[in-house]
Write a structure and sequence with these properties.
Shape: flat
Largest sheet: none
Number of helices: 6
Helix content: 55-70%
Number of domains: 2
Order of helices and strands: HHHHHH
Number of strands: 0
Structural class: mainly alpha
Length: 141
């Protein structure tokens, strides 16, 4: 998928740069910290999801969510765990990601404005991408 990365919106048959949304060649200049392969892999997964399910549009939460979410710890508990791990110098990716996911779920359940929920979901995606980048570095990819 040369020069594009899409997040499930717009025309997925053309690179986003051709849709006038993002010039990814320009974007990647100077972005040494970010691993383009991770985002290419994400784009490929989004393509597989779209091929399997079509373009998806779901509500932010479900009437059944209470039964699923009520047994999860609050985001504050995950944040405390992150803080505790940081104090001993051993923060885990799983704890960081769980904290971000729990914050997003709390915003979704609380009916937060979509801007706040979007920010939390971007943080979830960023942490997940950083975790994949770390795995790739450790494995020499």
């Amino acid at each position: 998928m040369s020069g594009s990365w899409s997040h499930g919106k717009g025309d997925r048959t053309r690179p986003m740069s051709e849709q006038g949304k993002v010039n990814w060649e320009q974007f990647w200049k100077g972005k040494q910290r970010m691993n383009r392969k991770v985002f290419d892999d994400i784009e490929a997964e989004r393509d597989r999801q779209d091929a399997k399910w079509g373009v998806q549009s779901h509500p932010d939460n479900s009437p059944f969510e209470d039964s699923l979410v009520r047994d999860l710890p609050p985001a504050s508990a995950a944040q405390q765990q992150c803080d505790q791990e940081a104090r001993i110098g051993s923060v885990s990716w799983s704890t960081v990601l769980l904290e971000e996911v729990l914050e997003a779920l709390e915003d979704s359940s609380a009916g937060a404005n979509t801007g706040t929920l979007r920010e939390e979901l971007i943080q979830v995606a960023a942490v997940a991408a950083a975790w994949v980048e770390d795995i790739d570095r450790r494995e020499g990819r």
